[in-house]
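Running log. JK asked me to keep both predictions on one page so they can be read side by side. First protein, sequence followed by its C-alpha cells:
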Amino acid sequence: MTPLHRPAAFLFLLASVSLGAQQPAAQQPAAQQPAPTTAATAANADTSYIDAQGTAHVTRVVPVPDTISPEAKQRLSLPVPDQAPPESIEQRRARVDVSTAAARVAWTNICPNTIVDSTLAGVPVRMVTPDGMPAANNDMVLENLHGGSFNTDSGSYSESIPIASYTKIKVVAVLYRLAPEHAFPAAVDDAIAVYKELLKSYKPDHIVIYGTSAGAILTAEVAVKLKQLGLPMPAALGIFSALGDFARNGDSWSIFTLNGFSGHLEPPPPAPHDSYYVRGTDPRDPVLSPIYADLHGLPPTLFISSERDALLSGTANLHRAYLHAGVDARLVVFDALPHAFWLNAKLPESIEANHFMADFFLEHLKN
C-alpha cells in the first residue's frame, strides 16, 4: 500500500540529517531546488544500513499512534513538503508575526486576559493579567522568555496567556533583543535586567522563569548567569523543549524537523547550532551551553518535550545534567507530537501540557 493510501502513516529517510529549519538560509534559484517527494516517489518499505562510521541510512513507515487525540492526529496529517525554498529572515518574521497574532486570539478565547505592552529596565515586555486573578496572587509573578529560534517572537502570547490563566498569576513576557542583529549574550542580558527589576517588587521565591524552545534554552542560560552573579534564584524554572549544548548534536536533531517527520532536513553542519546567535562565543561557554556549567543549587525545574521533537535529545540530556547536579528536575515527554505542540490552542494535549506547567509553578510558589 502506498503512502497515498495510508493517511495515518509517515515515511522518513535519514542519513545523518538535521534541523534545517533552525537557521535562516540563503535562497536557491528555483531551477536548483530538488522536487518535493510525492506519494509516487516516496520510499514504501523499511530499510536499514549502518555504514562504517555508524551513520544510519534508513527509511521507516511510522503510523500515527492511537495514543494521541483526534485533533493531534489531524495536526500530524498536515502536508509539509520536504523540499521547499528556504525562508529569508524577513520572510520568517513576517510569517511568524501573523501566526503569533492569531495565537493571541485563539488563546484569549479560551483564557480571557488583559495585555499591556510596557518596558522594565528599558526592555520591552508584555504584561499578561488573567481575568479573575485573586488579590492574594498580587505578590507573585512569572517571567516568560519566548521561543522563536532567537530570531523571532513565536510565543510571547501563546506561552503566557494560558499559563497566566491556569495559575491566576501575572506573566511578564520579555521581548528580548533578537539575533542576528543581537547575538549572545544580548538576550541573556535583557532577561537578567527584567529579573533584577522584578526583584524590586517581588521576593525571589515568588518568581518563576520559564520558556519554550529558544526561550527554554535562554531560561537555562539565565539560571547559570544568575548563579555566576550571586543573585537570588527564583522559586522554579520551566524548560520546555530545549538544548543545553551548542557544541554537539543530539540524536533527535538528526531525525526530526520542527514539524516532526515532515519538512526539510539536511546533514548536521560541523558549525555550532544557531551560529547567528552564538556568533564568536565558544560553544562550550558555560552560560551559552549550560550543560558545561556548575548546575548545583539551581531551583526545582520542570522539563517538557515530545517524541517527535527535534530538541528531544537536547531536553533529555540537559535534564540528566540537572539530575547529576542534585537538582529537583522532572521530565515529561508526550508521545508522537512535534516540537512545542503546546503552543497550539486546538490540541487537548496543549491544555494538558500547560496545566502541567501551571501546577508545577504553583506547587513551588506556595511553599
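And the second, directly underneath as requested:
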Amino acid sequence: MLCRNNLRFIGTATKPFSRDIIKPTNLPKQFAVARELFIRYLITERRLAENSISAYDADVASFLTYLTSLHKRSLKNIDPETIHLFLEYCRLKQISKRSNARRISALKTFFTFLVREGIARENPFIAVDLPRSGKSLPKALSAGEVERLLSPPAKATPIATRNNAMLVLLYSTGLRVTELVQLPVAGCNLNAGFVRVIGKGRKERLVPFGEQAKDKIDHYLKTARPLILKGKKSNSLFITARGNHMTRLRFWQIVQDTAVAANISKKISPHVIRHSFATHLLNHGADLRSVQLMLGHSDISTTQIYTHIDQDRLKNIHKKFHPRG
C-alpha cells in the first residue's frame, strides 16, 4: 500500500501538473499511483523537459503493463526472475539494444525513486547491465554540403526566406530543434549577437551567433515575417501563416526538402546540423568546455562524442607528419 504522504504529494507541487503527459492505461491502482508520483518527481525535482518525461513514462508504463499481464499487483518485491522474463519479452518484441538500454536506465531511476519513497524495498534493476550497442560517431556534413544547404533560395519568397534564416541560425548556434522552433522574438538579440534559450531541465543559456546569421534574421524580420503574419500578432520568432511557432515535424520536413534541392545524398535532420555545428567547432580548435556550454549539455562526457576526427583528416595528418609516411 502507498502511504498517505505519497498520495498527498501529487497535490503539493509548485509547478502545474499536466496529466496529458501520462497516456491512459489499464493499470492496477497501486501501479497507476506509483507511475503518477514518479512523473511528478520528474517534473518538480528533476525538472525535465516534456519530451524526456514522456520517454520515461513510456518505458515505465511498458514494464507496469507487463507486470499487470502476469497478474502482479505489488511493486514491493519484484524478483529477478520477473526482470529476466521482461527482458526476454523485450528481446522477442525485437526492441533495439539502444532502446532497451534506455528502458533499463529509466526503470533503474523509477525503482530508485520507489525505494526512496518506501514503495519498493529494493531496486531489482540495479544489477542489470545495460546492453552494449556500440557508440556510433555523430554524422556531420562536410563544409561543401553546409555551403549548399545554407545557400540563399532561388526564389526569395517569404516562406523560403524564413526557412533559410532558420537553417543558418541552427548551424550557427547548434540549438536543439525544439529550442529553435519555440524561440521567441525576445530571445534573439541581434545587437549583441546571441540567443537566449530555455533548454532541458528548464536551464537557461546564451548562445552566440555570427554575422551571417544576424543578417539573415534581420532580413527575415524586416521583410518576410510581416508578410507571413499578414497583420496577426505572435511572440514566436519563426512563425507559420497561422501565427503559431513551427512544429518539430514541419521543420524536419523543411530540412529534408532543402537537402534534396541542394543535392545532398546523406540522411539529414535538424540533429545532423547540430552534430555538424559541434564537430566543425572542435575540428577548428574550439575547446570542449565552450562547446558544452553552447550545446547545453549538463555533462561534458556527452560533448566528448564530438571529439572524433574524420578519417580523411587523420590520413592527411599521418601522411604529413609520420617520418615514413
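Observation for JK regarding the second prediction: Residues 311 and 317 are 10 Å apart (CA to CA).
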